[in-house]
Amino acid sequence: xxxxxxxxxxxxxxxxxxxxxxxxxxxxxxxxxxxxxxxxxxxxxxxxxxxxxxxxxxxxxxxxxxxxxxxxxxxxxxxxxxxxxxxxxxxxxxxxxxxxxxxxxxxxxxxxxxxxxxxxxxxxxxxxxxxxxxxxxxxxxxxxxxxxxxxxxxxxxxxxxxxxxxxxxxxxxxxxxxxxxxxxxxxxxxxxxxxxxxxxx
Length: 201
Prior knowledge:
The protein has 201 residues and is of the alpha+beta class.
């Protein structure tokens, strides 16, 4: 009986010490999620080289122009399909150009632009459409898509007769709106500049 009582006292003492140890350490709470620090590059706008394409615009020079690698019948889909890529921001603005003709009329190109923007509706919280018309007579629609979507900003530009240009912004990593929102705000300024300075040759 004496031994059992001694063991019982030790067990109670050990339990009390454990309680005090827990209270000293406090209740552990999850740490807030940290995101990689982004170093925003300096903005210097330069002219897009119009040697191959029938349009021009100004863009931030921290972007690298990368020709589209997709090929049709062994050739690039079009010499004026390219990406504006930023390694620092981990973004790509996919750009494509179409000459309006019998095979690709204006209405079908506009339908394609709306359908591509609509593919994000499943994850989107909201979609805003803004009419574009700059001082050079270029018209189009800007799609701003809120939520955890792959492409939060898309737009198309046209002269409604011969030319059609479409672009979509992508983050080259899994999209988390909380972490990408500041980058999107930064890049949106460059997209606005591109649209405002866009003109046909």
